[in-house]
Description:
Layout: H1 4-11, H2 20-25, E1 29-32, H3 34-37, E2 52-55, H4 63-75, E3 79-85, H5 92-106, E4 110-114, H6 128-133, H7 136-139, E5 144-149, H8 164-180, E6 184-190, H9 194-206, E7 213-218, H10 223-232, H11 239-246, H12 249-252, H13 259-271, E8 277-283, H14 288-299, H15 304-307
Parallel strand pairs: 1-2, 1-8, 2-3, 3-4, 4-5, 5-6, 6-7, 7-8
Helix pairs in contact: 4-5, 10-11
Amino acid sequence: MSLLPFLRRKSEPPVVPAVATPQFLRGWSIEVMPRTAEKVEDFRAILPPGTRVYIAHIDGTPIEDMVSTAKRIAGQGFEVMPHFPARSIPDRPTLSDWIDRYQSEAGVTQGLILAGGRKDPVGEFASSMDLLETGLFDHHGFKRLHLAGHPEGNKDIDPDGSDRLVMEALRWKHAFAERTGAKLALATQFCFDAQPVIAWVDRLAAEGIDLPVHIGIAGPAKLQTLIKFAIACGVGPSLQVLQKRAMDVTKLLLPYEPDEVVDQLAAHKSANPSFGIEQVHIFPLGGISAAATWANARTGQSPALAANG
């Protein structure tokens, strides 16, 4: 069998239909923190109508700041998905209070459930599974829950470099969705290389884990900024993409934009419609406005204020 077609696929960039990338990106979501959200005067000036906005709960952030940020963004017409970091929540009454406040004060009915950045729990919850098992999200009428996904593994969970415990957790979460009917999806860490992502999503399908994937990408940013965040967040093999770029003096000072990884994933999705990526989630490491401007340009969308005339 000739190796030429294989070699051509490896050496040539994917042929992306004109509509593939815009279709792949449409419906993108973005992440903010209360302190970064304060810098945005009006989210309608930068985000398309209906954009989902995740609100990251950094350890130590008062719940009052989280809820007020959620209320403000929801009030401007956007879907809000706050983080619920298990290891930062001391007990069941606190979790119930948080959920109730988000719903009653900001109309929130969805959340990202994750272990959180702390190494040691402050109370009785150590994982997203502990939070799910409380049944409180269903009790309070939450309609959508997203969970963390790790296409390149997670050494905090699997220190030996394997993905054994990560996969066990994903099987549990898939079984939970089947058992309870909960509407779950996987929101992943950001990656810089399409191939590990494709391999991981295909593996999930082979394992029978059919939770939709919302793939994380880093928005436009300085290369040095991305490398710093990638190392801090434990990004795996795809970090090599940035390191290789850093060795090219002609690219070192230019801002990174995620066009290549997005185009490759879009091409794969176009050629394989059943591929498990449902949406793109943007980490605005170089700023919210820069990320939104890039995504709007690639999709041909307009911010809500412009769209409404």
